[in-house]
Amino acid sequence: MSEPRTIESLSHWIGGRSAAGSGDRFGEVTDSATGEVCARVPFASAAEVGEAVGAAAEAAVSWGDASLSTRAKILFRFRELVEGEKDRMAAIVTREHGKVLSDAAGEVQRGLEVVEFACGLPQLLKGEFSPQVSRGVDSYSLRRPLGVVAGITPFNFPVMVPMWMAPMAIACGNAFVLKPSEQDPSAALLMGELWAKAGLPEGVFTVVNGDKEAVDALIEDPRVAALSFVGSTPIARYIYENGTRLGKRVQALGGAKNHAVVLPDADLELAADGLVSAGYGSAGQRCMAVSVAVAVGDVADPLIERIRDRIGKLTVGDGRDPGSDMGPLVSARHLERVRGYVDAGVAEGAELVADGRDLTVSGREDGHFIGPTLFDRVVPGMKIYDEEIFGPVLLVTRAASYTEALSLVNANPFGNGAAIFTNDGGAARAFEQDVQAGMVGINVPIPVPMAYHSFGGWKDSLFGDLHVHGPDGIRFYTRGKVVTRRWPDPADRGVDLGFPVHS
User: For residue 366, what are the contacts with CB-CB under 8 A and spacing of at least 6?
Assistant: First the structure.
């Protein structure tokens, strides 16, 4: 008989140290490959969130006045600490989320790239100076921190998305409060430890675990000046509407239904490789996953043949197994949701080319596994087309022409990412100009920008004006201020009720 598994008791991270929950509400964190409960996470009450925000608000005062060199030194130290712990961090992600280790390591690396960008914030925070705008008068601009800002992050990237937000906010002089997903919160707590080791003052980085009560408390607290969110569209809209109602700055990234158009002149081997990689990586649990392949002209049948051949060779298993290409879904509830979408696709008449519903992984029979699934002849109006599935389900829809394909993509309410596979430079240029999406790939299926560009979609994929990290991140986490300065000169004295003009 095997020994019973030890269930870890998690905590919050408040005031620069671990803080046990004081209430009686908890969530269960599962090992996605085995289905076993591996940890219990406390759910913060509104009062606990208020205490955490209070500690952050106190810390924000002195941190906002810290020198740029002080901030940069701590960010450099944090970057080195994350680099040293990236294998441990990836292993935590694989256990709680399910993605294979190589995928988890890639997530940590993309988060590190934003940390590295944030290390250069002293250069990027420089203002502008205009001398002598009028006689004896100079004018210049500043960017000042907001104070306390909060991030509410999703289960699918428990390292990368918090690192899109926290290093940027902290480098800009803010205190940052993170509410991670309750499904895989351990990586966020490790970040707290690393920030403390890096020398970040107590209270500048905070983690409060919880559910809707914690989210609502962050929205309602007047000391929280800004909210960053990544998740589903209904929740993004909820946070945006309620946050802005209270005068907060909000960037809320929602769901996606990313299309990849495949033209007849495309390299089909490249296209099939890209579609399988982007459709089934991380078991489809990516906001930038390709959900729909739009096959133009007579390209559908040979493209589907190539996709089916590739997914037939994928190994689905425990993400810790080096032989696994694809891991499980994050939870049993999400597994049932994705299976339900496949059932609906069959019932609505889509052609099921590959069915992953009955997959069983030996030794991991209670894990949250579903195999790669492929539908053909999907059309708008079907549930599997209209809604975000967030699982390893790739849809193929057919279009007679490029114009029809573009119209199909642009008619979709989501606008996160879009891609085109073609060897025609003119078609590629037309697509990048005309497609209604925030991120565009040309023969690149997952066009996630590097850290020095900003990440964000259009339409129902983003609520708010500014995207995440990069230049938009700096603007989001700071306020602009313009100063007009004159030193006293007796010749300039005297009352003048006219509107001031420069001369």
Answer: 34, 35, 36
Q: Give pairs for 429-438: CB < 8 Å, separation 24+.
A: 430/402, 431/261, 431/406, 434/406, 434/410, 435/406, 435/409, 435/410, 436/409, 436/410, 437/258, 437/409, 438/462, 438/467
Residue 155 contacts residue 184 (beta carbons within 8 Å): yes
Collapsing DSSP states into helix, strand and coil, what is residue 387? coil
Provide the β-strand partners of residue 40.
Answer: 9, 28
Strand partners, 145: 478
Residue partners of 309: CB distance under 8 A and separation at least 6: 272
Structure-block tokens of residue 24: 């009686």
Q: What are the average pLDDT values for consecutive 10-residue runs of the chain, which has 503 residues?
A: 71 95 91 96 97 98 97 98 98 98 97 96 91 91 97 98 98 98 98 98 98 98 98 97 98 97 98 98 96 98 98 97 97 97 98 96 96 98 97 98 98 97 97 97 93 93 94 96 88 77 70
* Catalytic annotation, residues: 287
Give the C-alpha distances (Å, rounded to integers) separating 225 from 163, 167, 175, 249, 477: 19, 17, 10, 6, 9
Say what the pTM is. Answer: 0.95
Domains of the chain, first to last: 8-254+461-482 (3.40.605.10), 258-442 (3.40.309.10)
Task: Provide the Cα torsion 464, 466, 468, 470; round to 10°.
Answer: 180
Rounded distance between C-alpha atoms, residue 253 and residue 242, angstroms: 15
